Structures are given as C-alpha cells and as structure tokens.
Amino acid sequence: MQGFRQGREDCFNTVFERLYEALCMYGYKIVGERVVAEEWAERALMAVWERREQFQEFLSLRHYCYTVVRNGCFTWLRQQRAVQESDLDAEILVDTELNRLQDIIRAETYRELHWAIEGLPAQCRRVLKLSYLEGMSIKQVAAALHMKAGTVKSQRNRGLLLLRKRLLSIFVVCCFLNFITQYILR
Q1: Is 55 helix (H, G, I), strand (E, B) or coil?
Q2: Could you tell me the pTM of the whole model?
C-alpha cells in the first residue's frame, strides 16, 4: 500500500489485477451488462488511484471500489429506466444489505480463486484455464498445448490439488458466510 500511495504504477497494476475481475463480476450481477460493469470497475479503480493518498490499507480501498461500482451501476439502471420504460425487473433495483453482502462474497470468492489460479505453476495454470475456464476437453487441451493427454491429466490433477490447499480456508469462510446470509440474516 505504501508504494500505491506514493504513486508507483507497478503497485497500481497489482491492485488492478487483484480487484478488476471481481469488480466486473459484482457490477455485472447488478446491471447484467458486461460493458457497463467493466466501465464502472475501471472508474472505481481510477477513482482510488486519484485518491491514493487517502487509503491506508487495502481493505478500505477495496470497500471504496465496491461502493463506487454499486452506486454507478444503480445510477446507470435508473437512467436506463428513465430513458426507456422497459421491463427492468424492479427487484434488481432493490439495494438491500443482504443482496449486497451476497454479491460481494461471490465477487471476493471469484477474486481469490482467480488470484490462486494465477499463483499456480505455469503449466498447471494453462491446463486449468483451458479445461475449466474455456471448457476444453482433455484432448483439446492436449492439442492446444502440444502435450500428451496423460500429461494434461496429471497437470490438471496437480493444479487442483494445489488449489484445494490454497483455497481450503476460503472455502470454510464462504460456507460460514453463506450460512449466515441464508439462515441468520433472513
């Protein structure tokens, strides 16, 4: 955070990489438009960069970004509704604490998963991305990476094992938060 506050671009790039996809996912959940969600994620990150001296810790920076995305997406929805009285679902405009909490938990889980995948060894990372994010079969991955199918299987299994170790604590926290939002806060 110190480098970020001092204006180092490499630190901004790290913050951008850690938050961008999660902010996009959060915005998309609100508006259902990928382009709009990406625009507000970028605006949020530019806003924290412009105010970088104000943020002492990553947690407050992250919270600010989610707030900017949420407010921007709701403003966009209201403008869309004013421009065209379409069949926008009224529930999408309901901004309850529970909905926000669930959306943030989902986005943060995605962010942690993305970050964990990026931390895998290069071969495992490529295999997992093609297998699970691109939906390729083992044969397709093997052809794309010029590997044997057995190598793809072992790299995929190795990557999944490493992810399980890295994400176990996150899984426990997500289960706990899901339980709270489903059964206690309702």
Answers
A1: coil
A2: 0.56
